[in-house]
């Protein structure tokens, strides 16, 4: 599983970083989301999903497969 | 003899969308300002309706529509929004202008209000919180507004701006008038007084720069070829002064009032004060439930939204509290569930005008809880003292008399 952030929509609420700091941080300039992990370890998948669902802007989405993956 | 209230119903508003609801009215039997809004939802009011009072304006009741208005700043503008419509109110930077103009000040301020930046202020917030509690903890009673929630945001403003601590009393007095006075002439005088004090402050600050927001703003003004003017710096500072005042104060009042009446919630929060994950979840829930702001927007171009014709310069009110209690989005929305998992509330707005101070506001409230609950774990409302409620763009209580069994 991976998570994709839309920085054009993110406004720096930082709800994701609060809920799942292993995966999400915020930048020092505009306070927008930084996705720290390329792949989400299964142990924190649930927390990651929760972080995505709590974003009031809808700036985060989950992708279960890599683009172009055939399986 | 009472005069009938003036009602404004323009021709493009169909009669079936007009509802006799006054944003500012506080009826004598109202004990909780949120009930005023909830009764609209309970009565099955149209999700988008026209209030004919205060010059007339739309009200959006549903999460989906409030969110849509926040997201579309080209249709729902922040420029010149006021209810009733007033002339001569300053354009407050950056909140009073839309993109791209708002980025001039917003991008200056955002780095100063990130979670990491406000975390550096926590020791100061804690110190100020303790000082306030020291003054009344052993007395066994206080007026929470006059002695705590009304003072903390002003102290933080002084700190943020790099003002001399000796000005705290003066600013608390200015803030007090700003929050309590309703007479338009007195309010206008108060705003002039605040502007005068800020102008003088910046003239002094220019000679004595420091590590503070005021100095950041002045550096931006004094950068060669900068488009930042002295007046804009003062407008921006005025916004920072007022934006964090009655919103934070009112939110704290609602939360402490809730805790005073629900002992189980006090215990639940006291048990997780040092567990950030649980405390944050509880805090977000309290922010969801007690969203004190009813936000204004001005329609910037004729448009039809969900079949409703909106005309340029129509005003729109976005009640965050009803959006946050919308059953289409939140499970058991009327329950305060301090462990709520899915909670994308709109208390700090959305989109290009998302509340810049949201992380500071959360830190103020969480730090206040961390300091208050260990020292005053059990407290209740002193029901012998009458409480005055106010409504409008920010709603809440003018006073909150609390009492507890004081330890010697």
In words, what does this structure look like?
The complex is a heterodimer of chains A (71) and B (408). Chain A is 21% helix and 20% strand. By secondary structure, chain A is of the alpha+beta class. Chain A has one domain: Alpha-Beta Plaits. Chain A has a two-stranded antiparallel sheet with strand order 1-4. Chain A has a two-stranded antiparallel sheet with strand order 2-3. In chain A, a hairpin with a 6-residue loop joins strand 2 and strand 3. The two termini of chain A are 14 Å apart. In chain A, 38% of the residues are buried. Chain B is α+β, with helices and mostly antiparallel strands. Chain B is built from 16 helices and 12 strands. In chain B, the strands form 4 sheets. Chain B has a 5-stranded mixed beta sheet. In chain B, strand 1 and strand 2 form a beta hairpin. Chain B is globular. The model of chain B has no long low-confidence stretch (mean pLDDT 93). Chains A and B meet through helix 1 and helix 2 of A and helix 4 and helix 14 of B.
Keywords:
heterodimer, A: 71 residues, alpha+beta, Alpha-Beta Plaits, two-stranded antiparallel ribbon, 2 helices, 21% helix, B: 408 residues, three-stranded antiparallel beta sheet, 16 helices, 44% helix
Describe how the helices and strands are arranged.
The complex is a heterodimer of chains A (71) and B (408).
Chain A (H helix, E strand, L loop, with lengths): L1 E4 L9 H5 L4 E3 L6 E3 L9 H10 L5 E4 L8
Antiparallel strand pairs in A: 1-4, 2-3
Chain B lengths: L32 H10 L5 E4 L5 E4 L2 H9 L4 E2 L25 H7 L5 H5 L2 H13 L6 E3 H6 L2 H10 L6 H13 L3 H24 L5 H10 L7 H14 L2 H16 L1 H8 L5 H14 L4 E6 L3 E3 L2 E3 L4 E5 H4 L34 H18 L4 E2 L7 E2 L5 E2 L3 E3 L5
Parallel strand pairs in B: 2-8
Antiparallel strand pairs in B: 1-2, 3-5, 4-12, 5-8, 6-7, 9-12, 10-11
């Amino acid at each position: 599983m991976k998570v994709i952030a839309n920085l054009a929509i993110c406004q720096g609420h930082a709800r994701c970083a609060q809920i799942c700091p292993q995966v999400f941080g915020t930048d020092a300039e505009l306070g927008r989301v930084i996705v720290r992990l390329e792949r989400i370890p299964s142990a924190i998948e649930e927390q990651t999903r929760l972080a995505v669902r709590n974003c009031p802007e809808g700036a985060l989405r989950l992708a279960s497969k890599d683009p172009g993956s055939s399986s | 003899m009472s005069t009938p209230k003036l009602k404004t119903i323009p021709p493009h508003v169909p009669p079936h969308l007009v509802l006799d609801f006054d944003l500012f009215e506080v009826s004598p039997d109202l004990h909780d300002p949120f009930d005023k809004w909830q009764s609209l939802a309970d009565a099955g009011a149209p999700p988008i309706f026209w209030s004919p009072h205060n010059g007339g304006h739309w009200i959006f009741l549903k999460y989906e529509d409030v969110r849509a208005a926040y997201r579309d700043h080209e249709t729902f503008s922040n420029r010149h929004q006021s209810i009733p419509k007033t002339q001569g109110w300053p354009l407050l930077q950056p909140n009073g202008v839309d993109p791209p103009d708002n980025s001039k000040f917003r991008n200056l301020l955002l780095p100063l209000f990130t979670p990491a930046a406000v975390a550096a202020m926590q020791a100061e917030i804690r110190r100020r919180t303790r000082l306030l509690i020291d003054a009344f903890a052993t007395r066994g009673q206080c007026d929470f507004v006059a002695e705590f929630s009304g003072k903390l945001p002003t102290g933080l403003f002084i700190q943020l701006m790099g003002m001399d601590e000796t000005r705290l009393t003066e600013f608390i007095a200015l803030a007090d008038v700003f929050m309590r006075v309703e007479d338009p002439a007195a309010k206008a005088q108060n705003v002039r007084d605040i502007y005068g004090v800020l102008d003088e402050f910046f003239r002094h600050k220019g000679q004595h720069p420091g590590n503070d927001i005021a100095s950041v703003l002045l550096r931006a003004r004094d950068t060669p070829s900068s488009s930042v003017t002295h007046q804009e710096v003062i407008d921006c500072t005025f916004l920072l002064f007022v934006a964090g005042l009655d919103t934070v104060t009112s939110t704290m009042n609602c939360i402490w009032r809730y805790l005073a009446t629900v002992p189980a919630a006090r215990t639940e929060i006291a048990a997780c004060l040092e567990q950030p994950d649980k405390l944050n979840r509880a805090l977000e829930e309290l922010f969801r439930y007690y969203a004190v702001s009813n936000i204004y927007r001005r329609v910037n171009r004729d448009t039809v939204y969900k079949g409703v014709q909106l005309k340029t310069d129509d005003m729109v009110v976005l009640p965050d509290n009803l959006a946050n209690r919308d059953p289409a989005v939140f499970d058991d929305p009327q329950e305060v569930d301090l462990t709520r998992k899915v909670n994308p509330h709109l208390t700090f707005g959305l989109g290009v005008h998302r509340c810049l101070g949201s992380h500071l506001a959360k830190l103020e409230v969480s730090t206040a809880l961390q300091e208050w609950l260990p020292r005053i774990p059990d407290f209740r409302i002193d029901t012998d003292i009458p409480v005055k409620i106010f409504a409008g763009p920010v709603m809440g209580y003018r006073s909150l008399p609390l009492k507890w069994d004081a330890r010697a």
